[in-house]
Specification:
Length: about 350
């Protein structure tokens, strides 16, 4: 099959022929129809997860497609089903999984990180009984791809982690794939959303999804949020992953506020200096959020079905990239940002 590969961190990406994957016991092989270009793919390419990647490596971890083969022990009813899967393939058996926290399973595998990813014609889903998510018929592959990573991650950050409720002020820093999905989820809970980005396009999308205020990022952001909210927000979400956004999120909170860190802060860029004095004095809560267990998907899919999460609005509007086009777009993420979720369709062929 054709796949996007690289052989060194930060090295060139190319479209190569690699062996077709086989469905190991408990696993399935999925024909990929759409795969989102997530900023975590860029982190991975730069070696921010260097301890789990082996070369040549196939990136991509946020996908939708159709099951083409099932391994030993997997229910054959999955054959031909349209599916996605959380990017954290939980083992399904350990104590952490059994208590419902597969998103932090210590034995997890991740497509595009520990294993070959979805910027390829086919991708393997391990522990299929635990991790496969059947897609509703009326959700197309383009809309569904984000459910594998950014939409589900944002959904969990807003619901299970921050516990956002009606009327609360929620500041979302970074309005890309994660941020827009967080805004859509918070808007469905009738929160009052302040969207922050450096891009007017991103902020326009945020407003379309229900953000009440849209602010261009800047050093005075916490002061502007305190002024708008009369004492600080209840919830902040770092949906970029930078020292500046993590700090600004915490400092934008009012007393007792909750900050959710979704954006990656790679160890390679050094420790993140957080205002712990403020965390103590104002009893702020700092929460991490990492994907979402497949068992937690049904309520999210119900919100999609009810029209409360408009997946189409989260998309970039650009035509899906071919693998060759993705080979250029992935490295470019260091210097460019795109509105919403940019998709790769590995079935498209271009030079
Ligand atoms: N924790 C998890 O499970 C998880 C899951 C998915 C993604 N992530 C991480 O979340 C982060 C966001 O990923 P994404 O794919 O949504 O990114 P993205 O590139 O789609 O969006 C980033 C947004 O941030 C904006 N931005 C840039 N500089 C800014 C600044 N100074 N202030 C505010 N906004 C700024 C950009 O214009 C863009 O709209 C990344 O770090 C990614 O690796 C984590
Ligand atoms: Zn991702
Ligand atoms: Zn486990």
């Amino acid at each position: 099959m054709r796949a996007l590969t690289y052989a060194a961190f930060g090295g060139p990406l190319s479209v190569t022929e690699v062996p077709d994957p086989v469905a190991a016991p408990g696993a399935v092989v999925v024909d990929v129809e759409a795969s989102g270009l997530c900023r975590s793919d860029w982190h991975g390419w730069l070696g921010h997860d260097s301890d789990i990647v082996t070369f040549p490596h196939v990136p991509g971890h946020e996908f939708a497609g159709t099951v083409r083969a099932v391994g030993e022990g997997v229910d054959r009813a999955w054959l031909g089903r349209r599916v996605t899967a959380p990017f954290v393939f939980a083992c399904g058996r350990c104590p952490v999984c059994r208590r419902g926290d597969g998103q932090i399973c210590p034995h997890q595998r991740q497509p595009g990180f520990t294993d070959p990813g979805s910027f390829a014609e086919q991708v393997v889903v391990y522990a299929a009984a635990t991790n496969l998510v059947a897609l509703p018929d009326d959700v197309g592959a383009a809309e569904a791809a984000g459910l594998g990573c950014r939409v589900a991650t944002a959904y969990r950050a807003v619901t299970a982690r921050a516990g956002v409720t009606e009327g609360e002020w929620v500041v979302v820093l970074g309005c890309g794939g994660v941020g827009l999905a967080a805004i859509a989820t918070a808007a469905a809970r009738r929160a009052q959303i302040i969207a922050v980005d450096v891009s007017k396009d991103a902020l326009a999308a945020a407003a379309e999804l229900g953000a009440r205020h849209t602010l261009i990022a800047g050093d005075d952001l916490p002061e502007r949020v305190h002024a708008l909210t009369g004492g600080g927000a209840q919830v902040s979400i770092d949906a970029l992953g930078a020292v500046a956004t993590a700090r600004a999120g915490l400092l934008s909170l009012g007393r007792g506020g909750r900050h959710v860190q979704v954006g990656l802060l790679p160890a390679a860029s050094g420790p993140t200096p957080l205002p712990m004095d403020r965390v103590i004095a104002w009893e702020l809560v700092v929460l991490g959020s990492h994907g979402m267990d497949a068992r937690d998907y049904p309520p999210m899919l119900a919100e999609v079905a009810a029209g409360r999460l408009p997946l189409g609005v989260l998309l970039s509007g650009r035509a899906p990239l071919s693998l060759a086009e993705a080979a250029k777009a992935l490295p470019d993420m260091g210097s460019s940002f795109h509105r919403g979720i940019v998709l790769v369709d590995p079935r498209r062929e271009t030079k």
